[in-house]
């Protein structure tokens, strides 16, 4: 309960003041008090006290300082870190550092309105069309935290109109990130003839199982059952704070799965295991079940950027050998390739979903239902043949009718 006190100012005049407990700061958890002074009469002090009590009752505890967006982000991030994996919050921190925080600069959260957020979101959509929705989502989480802690009255990012980046089209469909059957076989044959077994096996495994790069880099020999011809996916390589490599559980619950292996894939796995054992024998070491299938130079986890360097080297060798126009895809494109060829081979959508570890079948349908160039050509030829046959039938009917 606040009490009003009379005091003497430095100039000798009498004045009134009060010191009031205003609650617990929701951001720091500390008790807060506020002091108001300088009232000429006791009546003025009582009126100010009543207004403050009503304000606190209606609006909650106001912060003494008007936080900047970056300050509110720092408070939000401290609690966010407790709810997700290190690799997840490390990635989130990078998104904020390089894209979100620079956009808000030193703006104070109470001065950020819908118009400002709309301009920022539009700029993200223009410059980062593949990631802007993620930026908007994360930026909104900080404002939402401000609402929960009663620092803000509304979330301006929730009020914007979601931007829609202008779609671009290419007649040559250069954005198709997958190989056709013929392109894949040519690529793998070239790698097998010109590069080491482990490098060939890496791309072969991705193309023939559809596993993610991180899942491949986390594989131990214990994950491969040669007798049952199965590959167990139970973990993935992840990057934590300051680039620290770690082994995490897979992306989703559905990512934990068993994948059947064909005889060719098993053959190359066995071949690489024998070569790896020979290398370990030279340093008086034995190959254990915990040994990584694709280790780094010092037999530790392989940096996730290395496969990209591998594929770039392969493309350079293809160019040197006269294959300048050979299609280029990313490492993740081998997963797309596997999915596309599964559909082409007649595998059901549900089977593809399970094999690739998609948690939602919509992902299988929306992202990976690309047709290969071979299927597209077959579709066109089928239609053309249909039209030719039909037109011949029509012409015969006309000729037959005209003879009467």
TrEMBL record:
<dbReference type="InterPro" id="IPR028259">
    <property type="entry name" value="AP2-like_int_N"/>
</dbReference>
<dbReference type="InterPro" id="IPR050808">
    <property type="entry name" value="Phage_Integrase"/>
</dbReference>
<dbReference type="GO" id="GO:0003677">
    <property type="term" value="F:DNA binding"/>
</dbReference>
<dbReference type="Pfam" id="PF00589">
    <property type="entry name" value="Phage_integrase"/>
</dbReference>
<keyword id="KW-0233">DNA recombination</keyword>
<dbReference type="InterPro" id="IPR013762">
    <property type="entry name" value="Integrase-like_cat_sf"/>
</dbReference>
<comment type="similarity">
    <text>Belongs to the 'phage' integrase family.</text>
</comment>
<dbReference type="InterPro" id="IPR002104">
    <property type="entry name" value="Integrase_catalytic"/>
</dbReference>
<protein>
    <submittedName>
        <fullName>Site-specific integrase</fullName>
    </submittedName>
</protein>
<dbReference type="InterPro" id="IPR010998">
    <property type="entry name" value="Integrase_recombinase_N"/>
</dbReference>
<dbReference type="Pfam" id="PF14657">
    <property type="entry name" value="Arm-DNA-bind_4"/>
</dbReference>
<dbReference type="GO" id="GO:0015074">
    <property type="term" value="P:DNA integration"/>
</dbReference>
<dbReference type="InterPro" id="IPR004107">
    <property type="entry name" value="Integrase_SAM-like_N"/>
</dbReference>
<keyword id="KW-0229">DNA integration</keyword>
<dbReference type="GO" id="GO:0006310">
    <property type="term" value="P:DNA recombination"/>
</dbReference>
<keyword id="KW-0238">DNA-binding</keyword>
<feature type="domain" description="Tyr recombinase">
    <location>
        <begin position="174"/>
        <end position="381"/>
    </location>
</feature>
<dbReference type="Pfam" id="PF14659">
    <property type="entry name" value="Phage_int_SAM_3"/>
</dbReference>
<dbReference type="InterPro" id="IPR011010">
    <property type="entry name" value="DNA_brk_join_enz"/>
</dbReference>
